[in-house]
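Example protein as discussed:

>
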Amino acid sequence: MTVEAIRVSRGWLDLREGADAAARSRELVGHLCRRLPAGGPWVIHDLACGSGAMGRWLAPLLPGPQRWVLHDRDPDLLALAESAVPGSSADGAVVTVETRLSDVTQLDPEGALEMGIFNMLVHAGWNLQRFRTLEAQLESVTCQPHVGPV
């Protein structure tokens, strides 16, 4: 089966940016800030970043230095995201941006879970209750050494 890539226009993303920002949860950001190491440094992978709107919304809410790694399969949108980077963090620390031309459906499983969970929570507009449920599930997982044939 062959799947054709659908291009998302800059105009469409510009129209969505305000509505997307209004729909995101500042309460969830507060919860994340309390659970993660204080003051960063933060390394945030934004999968399918489009124009970079998530970084422009979230970076000013997080304290400490941040390095945003923006992934998208569309080089034009990556160029746009790189030209409209977030300003400084909540406490005035530096925010840097790196872009990576990549298709999220082709990411290497090594490390993709870590990148994907945060991206999924924030991009999907998860509410705090759903986050706490996921957090409890992740905390209940214990790593066991594998014994026997693979």
